[in-house]
């Protein structure tokens, strides 16, 4: 499986990081070693002093596809989960300032925690109205709604599949809302879709 991620997909998050709004989805990847499951703790790496949380809805691809038309894209994912795109913000800023790729700031080991359970698509009455949030130590830090995405699920799948064949079991992180911020040892991160708790992990 592979982990594909969408950057700059919420206008308020683009503004808070003072980035330009892209004309098309921004795509980057994480290796499978970034995956963190079963509420395993997130271990702060020693190469960064500024690791940020970015809560995201995650799509699970259920069949192989290439050059998928948007109208057919909803048939290519069967479940939605929740994840965190941990980002070494200091490393990312340094690499971006030199015009270099910033995969190291996004794809390091453990940088992609996901919920153990994924909810079937049929459980969602409206895919463009999914509330989700991240609490840090019981305080809401990020909250978003899929309706605020610049590129919806169908557009994301269709666009990616023009360049990269999607395969069963692939995961797509769909972008983060505003409110990203640093984590530190001792923090407890809890993610929700609606009022359903999806993960609860410690930072160590």
From TrEMBL:
Residues 2-188 form the Fumarylacetoacetase-like C-terminal domain. The keyword Hydrolase applies. The keyword Metal-binding applies. Keywords: Hydrolase, Metal-binding. GO terms for molecular function: hydrolase activity. Pfam families: FAA_hydrolase. PANTHER family: ACYLPYRUVASE, ACYLPYRUVASE FAHD1, MITOCHONDRIAL. This is Fumarylacetoacetate hydrolase family protein. The lineage of its organism: Bacteria, Pseudomonadati, Bacteroidota, Cytophagia, Cytophagales.
